[in-house]
């Protein structure tokens, strides 16, 4: 099954690269937002003297992963289901797990490239210093948990998409909403009403952004977080729970055809 999964992942990557519009919007839209926010607020600093552009860079990595993993996975699956790709694959020896792993490999590769682009913008444009080795290890497990959670949730939500042409619009609604309430576009989150803070804390994006801020910001910046601490244990727990929830939802909702029940 490993060989089949790798082969499917290669096919998915080639198909993605042939769609220039998808490539541009996937990679450069988050980078464009970072450039806009970083330039507009670049002259400002937090109370700890950390440049706001650096805060945006760290937080936008969470947006990049959500946009790449959740939207790309959900929209791609909806399109494959509608145009009959999944139905045709069902008649081959390829199991559903190999197909999903292939999709997952595409999303993982795109997420790595997306994170590299955003970090590159932060370093080259906003003079963001890179973290030490220990922080990169933390980045690794937060990154992998984030990609897995967002990918599985994208698979699950794709079952709700009735028309693949509307997939982007449907999937981007929770993406945009979560960015504003999760400390990505608005930071610190204490600027939000208490009830919005509590709602945001249920979802993984708030913890993804907080984890990436831990990696790229100095220790003193934790006073800007809710509770005044990085809470990496909570970050790991919440992301782990959402990985399990996403996996269960995948098993329950995945179907080869829109007519399957």
TrEMBL record:
Stretch forming the signal peptide: none
InterPro entries attached to this UniProt entry: ABC-2_transporter, ABC2_TM, ABC2_TM_bact-type, ABC_2_transport
Major localisation: membrane
Cell compartments where the protein resides: Cell membrane; Membrane
Topological type in the membrane: Multi-pass membrane protein
Spans through the membrane: 21-41, 61-79, 100-126, 138-161, 168-186, 232-254
GO terms for MF: ABC-type transporter activity
BP GO terms, sorted: response to antibiotic
Gene Ontology cellular component terms for the protein in this record: ATP-binding cassette (ABC) transporter complex
Pfam family, one: ABC2_membrane
Domain ABC transmembrane type-2, first and last residues per copy: 21-257
Domain of life: Bacteria
Keyword set includes Amino-acid biosynthesis: no
Record carries keyword Transport: yes
Keywords carried by this UniProt record: Antibiotic resistance, Cell membrane, Membrane, Transmembrane, Transmembrane helix, Transport
Protein family (similarity comment): Belongs to the ABC-2 integral membrane protein family.
Name this polypeptide is given: Transport permease protein
Organism whose genome encodes this protein: Actinoplanes italicus
High-level lineage: Bacteria, Bacillati, Actinomycetota, Actinomycetes, Micromonosporales
